[in-house]
Design brief:
16 strands, eight-stranded mixed β-sheet, 2 domains, 36% helix, binds magnesium ion, 9 helices, binds aspartic acid
Length: 323
């Protein structure tokens, strides 16, 4: 039996025909290493946002069931186009909707939870040597109605399929080449993290870093699926999220919209040097704190007023870049 790899491509990676060609090249490269390939795709570019606003133009009270019926089409367009392209390139591929792929969910339209996956169709197609391309973010409930998993839910589809298929790894491809200590679009001196534990990733998401769909981390951790965040558009090594626990290394700073900053890293509570440096910055910058929480894996500070982004740069320099 060949090992299975699950490859997920986000909306900006599949935005147009040119990008789909790059996606196809990436898939073929991995396929040629002799793996069974299951691909999960998002809707193209901003399709989901566009469909939501079009529906809202029609009605102020769109029923969740109908919104799901509409939004699920976005992902299906991508699956069909990618399959057409791969077949044209000489590779056997097939597109499947969530229900064709056997993804069963509960009845919560717009925020459904995957209950179980019936793999018979996927396995049959893999046995025939096909690349199986599955619509992310969607499933079917017991009434045979289409459901969606909540915004960003294709990540969860990919990791859930990896668990069900006992896949070796789950790759999450996007337009960034990994997970950074903090938002690379906003701050200087950011560092790409080669590895991260599930728990740290979970803390980052719950403190507000918009990286991966939160539920996909829970599934990854439960079924021990290594999740690898990489770029669709280059071959740089990305970030591996797995069980690895590295003590005392600070991984991330998340600044919320409000006056809160969180610093995340396994065992941060024992990192005396980092805590000292942090207190130094706060004193030097004359910042007034309302609350300071030092926990096993994170420090959360609530300030009296909203703090400048410059403070995040300072923390980055004096805590992360030295540890
Ligand atoms: N297309 C959906 C969204 O935009 C799901 C996803 O991309 O993961 O939220
Ligand atoms: Mg996403």
């Amino acid at each position: 039996m060949m090992d299975t790899m699950v490859l997920k491509f986000g909306g900006s990676s599949v935005a147009d025909n040119e990008k789909l060609k790059l996606v196809a090249d990436k898939i073929i490269k991995i396929k040629n290493k002799k793996y069974n390939i299951v691909v999960v795709v998002s809707a193209q570019g901003k399709t989901t946002d566009k469909l939501i606003s079009e529906a809202k133009e029609l009605s102020n009270e769109v029923k969740d069931r109908e919104m799901d019926a509409l939004l699920s089409i976005g992902e299906q367009i991508t699956t069909a186009k990618l399959s057409i392209l791969l077949n044209e390139m000489g590779y056997k591929a097939i597109s499947l909707t969530g229900w064709q792929a056997g993804i069963y969910t509960d009845n919560t339209n717009q925020n459904a939870t995957i209950k179980h996956i019936n793999l018979s169709r996927i396995n049959k197609e893999l046995e025939e040597g096909k690349i199986v391309i599955i619509a992310g973010f969607q499933g079917i409930n017991e009434n045979m109605d289409v459901t969606t998993l909540g915004r960003g839910g294709s990540d969860t589809t990919a990791v859930a399929l990896s668990a069900a298929l006992n896949a070796k790894k789950c790759y999450i491809f996007s337009d960034v080449d990994g997970i950074y200590t903090t938002d690379p679009n906003k701050y200087n001196n950011v560092k790409k993290l080669p590895e991260l534990s599930y728990e740290e990733m979970h803390e980052m998401s719950s403190e507000g870093a918009k990286v991966l769909h939160n539920r996909c981390i829970e599934i990854g951790e439960k079924f021990k699926i290594p999740i690898i965040a990489e770029s669709t558009f280059n071959d740089n090594s990305g970030t591996v999220i797995s069980d690895i626990i590295e003590e005392n290394t600070i991984k991330s700073i998340v600044k919320s919209e409000t006056s809160r900053i969180s610093i995340i890293g396994n065992g941060i509570i024992r990192n005396v040097k980092a805590i000292k440096n942090l207190i130094n910055i706060i004193e030097r910058e004359k910042l007034e704190m309302l609350e300071l929480l030092i926990l096993e894996n994170k420090i959360v500070i609530t300030f009296k007023a909203v703090v400048d982004n410059r403070i995040v740069d300072r923390i980055q320099e004096e805590l992360i870049n030295v540890s």
